[in-house]
């Protein structure tokens, strides 16, 4: 059974000087300002599609990783995932790279099992699959000591 989530953006004006507001409709968590300048320069308290993608990817990856670990008989004490999304306008506008960094505390897991589980989560995360056209998605995974 599918679950649907929704968000909307109301934009006014042209791309360079216009602005908009993105609202998280399903959760009701808020409405956030978006501008081209916030997307390509400094955010100045506004968000961007790339920041929203980063949030989606980091949360999806953490969920997928925790599930893969559980299936392998391990429970993570903590998983912290950071996603950095590069928006490149030098050769047309595109998301050129996503860097996932994960630091986790997983009692009793070997380094090899940790790394293979981390890679499996990167490949199996539904958001990773949705972003498959991004030229580079890298993963830096390390166990906390």
From TrEMBL:
Q: Which Gene3D superfamilies match?
A: 3.30.300.20
Q: What is the species listed in this Swiss-Prot or TrEMBL entry?
A: Arthrobacter sulfonylureivorans
Q: What protein name does the entry list?
A: OsmC family protein
Show the segment(s) annotated as Disordered. 1-23
Matches recorded under NCBIfam families? osmo_induc_OsmC (TIGR03562)
Q: Which InterPro entries match?
A: KH_dom-like_a/b, OsmC/Ohr_fam, OsmC/Ohrsf, OsmC_Ohr_Peroxiredoxin, Peroxiredoxin_OsmC
Regions of compositional bias (Polar residues) in chain numbering: 1-11
């Amino acid at each position: 059974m599918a679950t649907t989530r929704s968000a909307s953006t109301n934009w006014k004006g042209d791309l360079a000087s216009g602005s908009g507001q993105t609202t998280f409709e399903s959760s009701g968590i808020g409405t956030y300002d978006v501008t081209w300048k916030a997307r390509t320069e400094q955010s100045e308290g506004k968000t961007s599609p790339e920041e929203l993608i980063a949030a989606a990817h980091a949360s999806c990856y953490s969920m997928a990783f925790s599930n893969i670990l559980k299936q392998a008989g391990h429970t993570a004490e903590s998983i912290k995932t950071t996603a950095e999304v590069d928006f490149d306008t030098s050769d047309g506008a595109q998301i050129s790279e996503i860097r996932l960094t994960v630091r986790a505390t997983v009692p009793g897991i070997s380094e090899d099992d940790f790394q293979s589980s981390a890679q499996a989560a990167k490949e199996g995360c539904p958001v990773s699959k949705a972003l498959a056209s991004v030229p580079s998605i890298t993963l830096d995974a390390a166990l906390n000591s």
